[in-house]
Specification:
With about 210 residues, the chain is an alpha/beta fold. It contains seven helices and seven strands; from the N terminus they run βαβαββαβαβαβαα. The protein has one domain (about 5-205): P-loop containing nucleotide triphosphate hydrolases (Rossmann fold, 3-Layer(aba) Sandwich). Strand 6, helix 5 (about 145-155) and strand 7 form a beta-alpha-beta unit. The two termini are about 15 Å apart. The structure holds adenosine-5'-diphosphate and magnesium ion.
Length: about 210
């Protein structure tokens, strides 16, 4: 059985690729056969990231494939996990992916300009028949406890599950990815531990 985790959002820059790479790294470290699927064919940033990682010989290497669209035949491969890094446009294809996914995660930045589209996106998936139980949000790029609290309340009020760990806005998360690392591999234990806890709670939600 292949488990599919889809990371999507209509907005660019919310943290889809950041989160998708992190899940791919942590699952691969757990000896799960994992493929990171980069569906953002115009940008291919996760594919580039995996190539940076390979050039720097950072272990484990991450299997990443860039595809123009989600192919249902991917489900029949022998991967334990497919992590789908979706492009910043929601299309009919998102619905196909959502149907096959065990978990659909939307990373969201804490501003109304990001929160409202994220909520609308989940409402649309629910209207299209996707179970609310499969939908979850990760608050990304918070700068204060108050910001996190307000964001969490806003999203919970809208009726969606929000992971209890939010990701802080940290330069070292960007630098890590520039180096081919995931944000769970940053050198500051306080930050990497927080990311690993988030990964743990994501995997336990499946
Ligand atoms: N928590 C964070 N702290 C600092 N920078 C972040 C954080 N999350 C994402 N970024 C940076 O923001 C940019 C956009 O993130 P990315 O994951 O590529 O978003 P998306 O794939 O949704 O477009 C990248 O440069 C990434 O390194
Ligand atoms: Mg991306």
């Amino acid at each position: 059985m292949t488990t599919i985790i889809a990371i999507l959002s209509q907005k660019g820059g919310g943290g889809k690729s950041t989160l998708a790479r992190t899940l791919a790294v942590e699952l691969t470290k757990q000896n799960q056969k994992t493929l990171l699927v980069d569906l953002d064919i115009q940008q291919k940033t996760s594919q580039e990231w995996s190539e940076r990682r390979k050039r720097k010989n950072i272990k484990p290497l991450i299997s990443c494939q860039s595809l123009p669209y989600f192919e249902e035949k991917l489900i029949k491969t022998n991967y334990d996990y497919l992590i789908i890094d979706c492009p910043a446009r929601i299309s009919k294809e998102s619905l196909i992916i959502a149907k096959h996914a065990s978990l659909i995660i939307q990373p969201v930045r804490p501003s109304l300009d990001d929160l409202n589209p994220a909520i609308r996106e989940f409402h649309a998936l629910v209207r299209a028949g996707i179970s609310k139980k499969k939908l979850a949000l990760v608050i990304n790029c918070v700068n204060s406890n108050a910001e996190e609290k307000n964001t969490r309340e806003y999203l919970t009020e809208a009726g969606y599950f929000v992971f209890s760990i939010a990701l802080l806005d940290k330069v070292s998360y960007r630098e890590a990815q520039n180096q081919g690392l995931s944000i769970s591999e940053v050198k500051y234990p306080r930050l990497s531990n927080q990311v690993q806890l988030l990964v743990k709670s994501i995997l336990s939600k499946i």
